[in-house]
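Sample entry (485 residues):
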Amino acid sequence: MKNSLKILDENRAAAVWLGIVCSLALLLRGFFLSQPMRFDEACTFRYFVKNGFVHVFSYTVPNNHIFHSLCAYVSTAVFGGHPAALRLPALLAGLGSIPCALVLSRLLSKRDGGYLAPCLLAAFPYMILYDTNARGYSLVALLSLLLAVAGLSWLSRPSPGRLLAVSAVSALGMWTMPSFLFAAAGLYFWMAALFVYRNGPKRLWTAFIVPCGIFTLAGTAVLYLPTVFINKGIHTLTQNSYVADLPWKDFFSAMPAHLKQTYSLFVRHLPAWLQWSLGGLIAAAAGFSIKKKNMEILFLLPALVLGSAAVLLLKHAVPYDRTWIFFIPFLLVLADAGFSFLTGFLRPRLRMGLLFLIFLLTCAWGIRSVNRNAVGRFPDTGAFPEAPVLVRFLAPVLTPNDRVISQCPADETIHYYMGYYGVPSSGSGPDTTEIRRFYVVKKSQFGIGDLTRDRVVPFLEYVNASVYVSPSTDARPAPAEPRHP
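Predicted structure, serialized as tokens:
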């Protein structure tokens, strides 16, 4: 009875903590939810979400994260095409990762953890970026955590139903984006290692590898059937022209720089002391897990690395840094385990006081991110924050005969906001020599010479954007110089 009451008190404390942390996470993400659209998410909306239900399943380019696009289709059908509505599925997935991190932490540390990981996840800038970006990466992070939880559930009590749940989560991840295979391979390797450690290798193939592999492949195939039918084959799924296979020499020479860049992008706006502290806590988790024979914690990071590396070598192509986003919540979960081990000897009140101090520091970290607009300044996935302001000032000037010409990342974001604000579609009239062409240039990346050699005159300047018009004799007067909103 006494143990039951203790567990109940711990669960209540965890629930209260979770509510506080999720409130902080929602506030921080809410601030960045209406940031200007980025190139990749504008493409997702314009080519896959807004064109009707069938286009959601098209996979002409890897930009379409199908499961996420389906969720975004439903969200925008209900709430309209506002950036916040388009980003709602990513936001909900990001918020869902926080309780999943708590559950996984408590499972790994035998009900003694789950406080640090959710707190850090709530304010982690790289996670906030993709929780407020209409792409499938926050879903990948959530499904990776769910896969680990489902795996531990199956390992604790193996059954066909629980193994089917493992396969179903994996299939949903693969349906979100094929690169989920990196996370799935690492976590399957982890589950296999734990199964062998507990039961020996004899039943590994019959109890796990074969049935789980069949269920996962079958589920993934069924989910992708509409895409295969629409695209008339699987070639678009298996051949990513944006991530090309490299010769082995080039692949191995490129990987150190890729890993270094990925780490630097992940830890942007993280204080150096926090990076060192997280590293120390992860090392403590490894040391204590050896002492306590907690193989669930000890095997987790090596399995993720080895499983991902195996898939990487099979493809021998350098992926985007955001492909590895699923590592962040698992690293925070391991840091949580290290924190639990190190503070396990403290009295409950002292430990809660320490956690309250950590929460205050996390709040200060989050407020600093908001004050500096840290996430909004990240250039990932094609940032062009000037787009909505430029479109609003061009709106009274443009006619259906005019052309708006720009380069990535300005082009898709400009055209998204033209549709959003109801500006006449660029170039819907006849193409004649008398039409006006407006050239939008992102000054930090391009010059007007990259867009045209025609005679042009400056039309508008705003922060990192320049607008030129050709021919000048047909141009109407420019509106008043825009100011920062």
